[in-house]
């Protein structure tokens, strides 16, 4: 692995944000002290994911006193993984670290990740949560169930207890940008690359301020997207449910014919009603699983951008000017950046 420096920036730190005005002062104090101490040229790419509070305004105020802070504002709330995609695609560093704004993952581990990547020539360094005692018991159990299921469906190459706190080399980032996945789940996409990787462990802290932006509903959605995007096992489950249903009905048929032959037939609305409920439930499960995959095929065929960039403080002013006519030079950059690639290129990761 050979690191390629982009604009001589050695390290980019990508931080997706949604309504994080309360935690911003603490985040900036800790992160800036860590990054200034590394002695490397760096940038911090804060992606405002359509926040409805004062996150955008506070980021602009902070940028006035922190030249390395770069604010990428999305036009609407696109979701955590889409905001992370926008940050990864915008980052210029030879190494790119991603971290959430809530400070549950300690920024003090970033220099350790960078040193490990350089010393062992690694393309990926995962942050592994060795202690989640600050999480609720429900959160720990559901997280454990998620990683247990994913490792069995997708493969054991997925690190257990690894979220979106990681360090990537420029080669790994460029590889992710070529992937055509419409719905990105980086905790699965990154291990799938198979690049040389290492790990650093840490204790997961409590959220520094504000409220969680990842409630149960979003956690369930992430689990469904993870499973249906990386495994056909649910479709095979539907097939096996159909097989079990067939043999169950066959056994019931044999039982009914035997009872009829022995003259033991009685009005059996209970058994009939139970059988109908069973078959109906299995069919609905199968249709639901098929619907999840068909929906993802439909989304992929549409090829809609996963995000739109409204502004990027790291862009030169002239690069933000829109093309005047369709016949404008091909080198001119559009006003709005999006998750859709140029013609002839693959869709975004």
TrEMBL record:
It is found in: Membrane. This is Glycosyltransferase family 2 protein. Residues 319-349 are annotated as: Disordered. Belongs to the glycosyltransferase 2 family. Coiled coil: none annotated. It comes from Kitasatospora herbaricolor. Residues 319-334 have a biased composition (Low complexity). The chain crosses the membrane at residues 237-262, 268-290. Pfam families: Glycos_transf_2.
């Amino acid at each position: 692995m050979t690191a390629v420096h982009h604009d001589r920036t050695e390290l980019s730190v990508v931080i997706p944000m949604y309504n994080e005005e309360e935690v911003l002062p603490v985040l900036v104090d800790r992160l800036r002290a860590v990054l200034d101490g590394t002695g490397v040229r760096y940038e911090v790419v804060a992606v405002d994911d359509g926040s409805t509070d004062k996150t955008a305004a506070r980021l602009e105020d902070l940028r006035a006193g922190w030249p390395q802070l770069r604010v990428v504002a999305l036009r609407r709330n696109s979701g955590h993984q889409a905001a992370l995609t926008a940050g990864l695609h915008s980052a210029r560093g030879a190494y790119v670290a991603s971290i959430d704004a809530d400070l549950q993952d300690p920024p003090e581990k970033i220099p350790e990740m960078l040193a490990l990547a350089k010393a062992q020539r690694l393309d990926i360094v995962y942050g592994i949560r060795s202690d989640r005692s600050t999480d609720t018991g429900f959160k720990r159990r559901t997280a454990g169930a998620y990683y247990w299921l994913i490792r069995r469906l997708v493969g054991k190459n997925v690190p257990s207890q690894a979220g979106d706190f990681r360090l990537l080399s420029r080669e790994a980032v460029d590889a992710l940008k070529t992937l055509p996945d419409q719905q990105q789940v980086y905790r699965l996409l990154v291990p799938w690359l198979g690049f040389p990787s290492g790990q650093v462990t840490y204790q997961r802290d409590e959220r520094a301020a504000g409220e969680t932006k990842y409630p149960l509903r979003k956690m369930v959605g992430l689990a469904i997207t993870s499973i249906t995007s990386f495994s056909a096992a649910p479709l095979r489950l539907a097939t096996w449910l159909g097989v079990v249903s067939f043999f169950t009905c066959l056994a019931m048929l044999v039982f009914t014919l035997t009872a009829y032959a022995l003259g033991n037939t009685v009005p059996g609305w209970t058994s009939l009603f139970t059988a109908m409920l069973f078959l109906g439930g299995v069919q609905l499960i199968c249709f639901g699983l098929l619907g999840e995959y068909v929906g993802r095929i439909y989304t992929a065929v549409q090829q809609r951008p996963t995000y739109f960039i409204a502004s990027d403080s790291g862009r030169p002013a002239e690069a933000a000017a829109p093309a005047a006519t369709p016949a404008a030079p091909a080198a001119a950059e559009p006003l709005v950046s999006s998750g859709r690639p140029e013609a002839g290129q693959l869709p975004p990761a």
